[in-house]
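One chain is below:
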Amino acid sequence: MVLAIVLLSVLAFYGVFLAVLEILRRQPGKKHDAGFRIILTVPEGSADYLEGVIRRIFSEDIPEKLLTDGRLYVSADAGNPQVVRIIRDMQRMYPLELLPQADRYYMITGRGFKMSEP
């Protein structure tokens, strides 16, 4: 009888512990921005994989895990209309920013980004 009570008590404590963990996990936490930025450079010929890569980055909460501002900055060849279309479509669902031409130096600030010639 005592063993049954102890076993039920342990299982009840374990259940409460799991419930508290689940509640804490679902609460929107404070976002931490350590100043890091994620820049995805799209190589030529990878347009077929681009949408999947972007979806995977956000489904696995990579920007939050890496303590960034929550945005993904994409550097792609603006001459490829398929890549630009995919990025524009993804911008409706995810916080993305298409960076201008890849031959320039980017400085991403709190107000956007600055470009300077090399």
